[in-house]
């Protein structure tokens, strides 16, 4: 059983006009096996939250804490965070020229486990994860994300999640740009990975439709760098009906 605790997290970025505060005190606690949906409009700071937890150097932590099972995540390097069991599926996955999917995944798995996976079980696991995500086997030989469609990039992110078996997975708009069939396949992959590993999931999304496939235990409404309302799955239905406009007048 693992717990990711985010307390009063404050984050800024440096811009041409000086430092800009993006997160204004975020509190979240995620335990193994729990799915938390963070829903908020564009520009509210959702990706900032995801990258800050993962350790992207662009973001400066100006206050608060992030711990995983009591360990200070903010003092860890990006690699240490991954080895500790944190996983980020990026909103815009990046190309890795000259590195095949197969090599990339095996290298990542080796780095996280501290030893190379046995070849036989590895090929079985890799093929199994790719089949789960309905990706053709030939993708293993392609360079990471090079020429991948939006949907293929998102499938590849979830193949990683299946193989790396994180304690906590942060999925940043994994649903964006997916057509309905891809959304179903990707959601099934996330549900399968979660079932295999009992991961905690922070599911960042702009839309409610993925929540038809991935049932959140908790929903947090995110506006202007803060959680402004929390509840159960019924909160997503309220958002579907009323949109984010109903929060614009909120004291945020
Ligand atoms: P979301 O993921 O919810 O759409 P982001 O975390 O990507 O939001 O962005 C949060 C805010 O940070 C936005 O207002 C965005 O314009 C701002 N921001 C991000 N990067 C920069 C930058 N380099 N310069 C100025 N503002 C930025
Ligand atoms: Mg955005
Ligand atoms: Mg974003």
From TrEMBL:
<dbReference type="InterPro" id="IPR010230">
    <property type="entry name" value="FeS-cluster_ATPase_SufC"/>
</dbReference>
<comment type="similarity">
    <text>Belongs to the ABC transporter superfamily. Ycf16 family.</text>
</comment>
<protein>
    <submittedName>
        <fullName>Fe-S cluster assembly ATPase SufC</fullName>
    </submittedName>
</protein>
<feature type="domain" description="ABC transporter">
    <location>
        <begin position="6"/>
        <end position="249"/>
    </location>
</feature>
<dbReference type="GO" id="GO:0016887">
    <property type="term" value="F:ATP hydrolysis activity"/>
</dbReference>
<dbReference type="Pfam" id="PF00005">
    <property type="entry name" value="ABC_tran"/>
</dbReference>
<keyword id="KW-0067">ATP-binding</keyword>
<dbReference type="InterPro" id="IPR003439">
    <property type="entry name" value="ABC_transporter-like_ATP-bd"/>
</dbReference>
<keyword id="KW-0547">Nucleotide-binding</keyword>
<dbReference type="InterPro" id="IPR003593">
    <property type="entry name" value="AAA+_ATPase"/>
</dbReference>
<dbReference type="GO" id="GO:0005524">
    <property type="term" value="F:ATP binding"/>
</dbReference>
<dbReference type="InterPro" id="IPR027417">
    <property type="entry name" value="P-loop_NTPase"/>
</dbReference>
